[in-house]
Write a structure and sequence with these properties.
Blueprint: H1 2-9, H2 11-63, H3 73-85, E1 89-94, E2 99-102, H4 115-123, E3 130-133, E4 138-150, E5 164-177, H5 179-230, H6 243-293, H7 299-330, E6 337-342, H8 343-360, E7 364-369, E8 374-378, H9 379-395, E9 402-409, E10 413-420, H10 442-447, H11 454-464, E11 468-473, E12 479-486, E13 496-497
Helix pairs in contact: 1-2, 2-3, 2-5, 5-6, 6-7, 7-11, 8-9, 9-11
Length: 498
């Protein structure tokens, strides 16, 4: 069963059989065509030679008046010689269909009724025929015996040739044996079979070698991939034998790099989670130990310490909630709940919730909409995208700063842009801002309660909608995050329609 599956699906036997069968079929066709061409050519040459001999002999018959007096020994000798030369039979038939001479001596004096003979008598040269009977092994031909006479009854010369009349006096019917051609063809066929066997052997070895050589680079790629899978190496694969193998190697190397990046990100993620969760716990433990160490601590101190403990617990709870949300998005546990959503109203509701924060931070918050926008989206996740972007713009802003939210749409996408007059993001940090727990200013992030997961969650939610998010701006001059999401959700992608 495994062998059958190998021959059915493996590339090597397919290449072998294609080359082998193509070579055999080509050689068989060429040899068959060569033999057939030889036979046709030999028959044609014999026919032309015999017709030439028959025309010459027909003139002799008229010159010697053989049809009226068949006693000429010379003509009879020529007929016998022609019969012997072609190993055949010659019949001389007059215009009354009577056999004047038969080189076999069995039909003389008899009347012959033959369509070919009658046609030749009536039509002359145009009625002459030649037929090859391959099954019985002979060629049959007819040639008219024509006498040219003067219309005035005199002798014929070049000056009076236009006044001459051609009269068919009889027909020469000859049968030529094709045994020499058949014998030669049999010899050639035996030699062709020997050549064919040699060609088959050469084709078999060549097809086998070519199939092995062609598939060798694929085997090397497979072996290299197996080494990587087994953990023996993690080096990129180099295989430039063919363009196809180069493409496969490049694709696998890109996958290898992605897996390495994911592994590094996973390790960094675990380290960051451990650090972020450990920090609040350490603070809580320090505060609790401080209270425990003081037997007569005043109530005000208890209250202050408990408020600090509450803040640390809230911070840890926020980290845990963000982590859970991110993990659900990564594993696609929560499918998108798609519905027709008024993006203008959704944005205004988010900004209404964040305006108290903007007032506390002394930041002007404005919303500009070019048109009314309705799109097929998950309302909760898009609300989370808008909230994270606007909240970050407020928290990382300058004193007396501003945040501007603009909304627009075309026939395919709606675009939400969140601009601010804040501290901006350094160019070297721009490619890392969507990484989990990455912070441009760690001290300020902790001061304002950031977890380092907001932009990672935002980007994941945007990608789930088959959208895009881009950052523009310079350090010290503020930032602009531009989100573009399709107005119509691609059916059958993430989740389904509600």
């Amino acid at each position: 069963m495994n062998i059958f599956r190998f021959f059915l699906r493996s590339l090597r036997p397919r290449i072998f059989f294609v080359i082998f069968l193509a070579g055999i079929s080509t050689s068989v066709i060429i040899l068959a065509a060569t033999l057939s061409n030889y036979e046709e050519r030999a028959v044609s040459v014999n026919t032309q030679e015999a017709q030439t001999q028959m025309r010459i002999l027909a003139n002799h018959l008229i010159t010697n008046n053989y049809l009226q007096d068949p006693s000429s020994v010379v003509i009879s000798g020529e007929l016998d010689m022609l019969s012997t030369l072609y190993d055949g039979r010659v019949l001389i038939i007059d215009d009354s269909l009577k056999v004047v001479r038969d080189t076999y001596g069995i039909a003389e004096g008899k009347t012959i009724i033959s369509k070919e003979v009658v046609s030749c008598l009536k039509r002359g040269e145009s009625g002459a025929m030649s037929r090859h009977d391959r099954q019985n092994g002979y060629i049959e031909m007819t040639t008219p015996i024509i006498e040219t006479t003067s219309l005035e009854g005199g002798s014929i010369d070049r000056s009076s040739a236009s006044k001459a009349e051609q009269v068919v006096r009889g027909v020469m019917l000859i049968s030529i044996s094709t045994e020499p051609i058949t014998t030669t063809l049999q010899i050639l066929t035996r030699k062709a079979m020997i050549i064919e066997i040699i060609i088959v052997a050469i084709l078999f070895v060549s097809a086998l070698l070519i199939s092995i050589l062609v598939t060798k680079p694929f085997e090397r790629i497979t072996a290299a991939i197996n080494d990587v899978k087994a953990g023996y190496t993690n080096h990129p694969i180099v295989e430039n034998a063919y363009i196809e193998t180069e493409h496969i190697a490049n694709a696998f190397n890109q996958l290898l790099l992605r897996e390495k990046a994911l592994d590094d990100s996973r390790q960094a993620f675990v380290a960051n989670v451990s650090h972020e969760l450990k920090t609040p716990m350490t603070s809580i433990k320090v505060l609790a130990d401080s209270l425990t160490a003081q037997d007569d601590a005043p109530v005000e101190m208890y209250r202050d310490f408990m408020e600090d403990i509450t803040r640390e617990i809230d911070r840890e709870n926020k980290i845990i909630n963000d982590l859970l949300e991110l993990v659900k998005m990564d594993k696609q546990v929560s499918a998108l709940t798609i519905a027709q959503v008024d993006i203008n109203a959704l944005t205004e509701n988010v900004m209404k919730r964040l305006r108290p924060l903007a007032r506390r931070m002394d930041v002007e918050l404005t919303f500009e909409s070019a048109r009314q926008v309705t799109a097929e989206v998950d309302e909760v996740k898009i609300s989370m995208v808008i909230t994270n972007l606007v909240e970050n713009a407020i928290k990382y802003n300058k004193e007396h700063g501003w945040v501007r939210v603009s909304l627009d749409a075309d026939h395919q996408f709606f675009t939400l842009a969140v601009s601010d007059s804040g501290v901006g993001i350094p160019e070297e940090a721009a490619e890392h801002i969507y990484e989990r727990f990455y912070r441009v200013d760690k001290s300020r992030s902790r001061e304002i309660g950031g977890t380092g997961l907001g932009l990672a969650i935002t980007r994941t939610a945007v990608l789930m909608h088959r959208g895009s998010i881009e950052l523009t701006g310079k350090e010290g001059e503020g930032s602009t995050f531009t989100v573009q999401i399709p107005l119509i959700h691609p059916t059958g992608k993430e989740g389904g329609r509600s």
